[in-house]
Amino acid sequence: MADRVIIGMTGATGQIYGIRALNLLRETEYESHVILSESARITIKQETEYTPAELEQIADETYSVKNIGAPTASGSFATKGMLISPCSMKTLSNIAHGNAGDLITRSADVTLKERNPLVVMPREKPLNRIHLENMLKVTDAGGIIMPPFPSFYQHETDFDKMISRTVARALSLVDVSVEFEEWSGLENEVVQ
Ligand SMILES: Cc1cc2nc3c(=O)[nH]c(=O)nc-3n(C[C@H](O)[C@H](O)[C@H](O)COP(=O)(O)O)c2cc1C
User: Fold this and answer.
1) Could you tell me the distance, in angstroms and rounded to a whole number, from the CA of residue 38 to the centre of ligand 1?
2) Does the beta carbon of 105 sit less than 6 angstroms from any atom of ligand 1?
3) Whose CA is closest to 21, among 144, 131, 136, 173?
4) Distance between alpha carbon 109 and the CA centroid of its chain, in Å?
5) Which residues pair with 139 in a beta bridge?
């Protein structure tokens, strides 16, 4: 049954995006299957109030990044797709080059080969040519690059809602809908 979403969290800044994805998925019928990289464990402690173990408890299932025999490493394990949130430039590079040496990159590789949505939320600034080329490679392989940039046209001042809106948008790319206001357009705003 494809009622599972894989969440990979790597050592980039923006752990809040992965945590929010786990929390939003709890409000749905979908199961979250989380994998934390070794570096994510460091960044989580630096950026959040959670310990990695507490964070893993939000998820339905959790796997060690070293366990390349975990269910998500196989295409026979049906999922809606995978979110990598946040995605470091190292993990992006490994995915772009098919280096599937840990469970996050292996699961991403499997997601691409099974033609399921792979949503990569890269976090770095500024970007060098290598980063940009790797994003293009992942896009060419069928992945979706979704930088976690906030939008401003809703005049949102609540940081928390901004995060939720961005993550809800990312989840919609794996065909999981969570509640957030759709943009209904501007009325009669025509450029003369
Ligand atoms: C606090 C902190 C913030 C970091 N932010 C970023 C980042 O925004 N982007 C990035 O590519 N790497 C960042 N890094 C470095 C990665 O964690 C590092 O390259 C690591 O090897 C990535 O491994 P992983 O992809 O297996 O998690 C950060 C590291 C720390 C400790």
Assistant:
1) 10
2) no
3) 173
4) 14
5) none
Task: Return the closest-CA partner of residue 2 out of 176, 192, 122.
Answer: 176
48 lines ligand 1 (CB under 6 A): no
Q: What percent of the chain has pLDDT over 90?
A: 88
143-178 per-position pLDDT tens digit: 999 999 998 988 889 999 999 999 999 999 999 999
pLDDT at 180: 73
SS3 call for 8: strand
Residue 57 has pLDDT above 60, yes or no: yes
Please compute the mean of the pLDDT values over residues 101-108 and round it to a whole number: 98
- Pocket flag, ligand 1, residue 13 (CB < 6 Å): yes
What is the mean pLDDT of the segment spanning 110-122?
98
Query: Whose CA is closest to 108, among 169, 147, 56, 65?
Result: 65
Q: Ligand 1 in contact with 120 (CB < 6 A)?
A: no
List the domains of the chain with CATH numbers: 4-172 (3.40.50.1950)
Which two structure tokens, joined as six digits, stand for 79?
């999922």
Q: Where are the alpha helices (DSSP H) in the chain?
A: 15-26, 38-47, 52-58, 89-96, 103-113, 129-140, 159-172
Count of alpha carbons within 13 angstroms of residue 41, beta-carbon side: 9
Ligand 1 centroid from CA 1, angstroms: 34
Cβ atoms of 177 and 171 closer than 8 Å:
yes
